[in-house]
Amino acid sequence: MIIELTIIGIFVGFISGFFGVGGGMILVPILIYLGFDIKNAIGISVVSMLFSSVYGSYLNYKKGLLLLDNTLFFGLGGFVGGLGGGYVVDRLSSQSLTFILFFVVLFAIYKFFHSPIVSNKKELNHKILFVSIGLVIGLLSTSVGIGGAILLVPIMVGFLYFDIKRAIAVSLFFVVFSSFAGFISLSFYGYIDYYHGVIVGVSSLLGVFFGISISHKTNPKRHKSLILILDFIILGLIANKLL
User: Sign (positive/negative) of CA torsion 221, 26, 233, 5?
Assistant: First the structure.
């Protein structure tokens, strides 16, 4: 199992770095297929996202793509929302959580598909709005073991008129806050699998490095198309599990 989790960690780390996500949206379905219960899979995912998001955000900052401006308030809201993730996991059944994950991915696909690659409108910049969006995404995403970037990127690009590359960098930074809050909350309820989580998390660092390096060289239009393909693959895996 250690070898399998190491390979999965590298793969998920690459996905995280390239697409600016925590990796949980693909890690949780994979762990479920390996035989982990969804609640244990969520606990492993949260630990892994801490590793990948912190390292990935550091790399984005060094490359000048991550600016520590008002977008920091997305993260603050995500941290507060993420603290409630453990309560939701404790109260809902595994099947209910799987349904939530399905509809989260479905919404992300729909909104992102209709979002322009480059908007001709000025970015919306409002601290209270950013905190509110972060809070809702943090609560929802942590409850199903994802970092929230799969929702934040479509919202930033589709509703707030952010450039896609900047949105990807900010979304990965958001995962730092939401996953840390989720880690605290899920630890309280006893759903963190430290051993397997650290294996996947440490392995993911290598993948994150290469993912971010390739991401910065990828054409925005191609980048968007690849994100949509990834979302459809994940949606299919979850749908198959539900059926």
Answer: positive
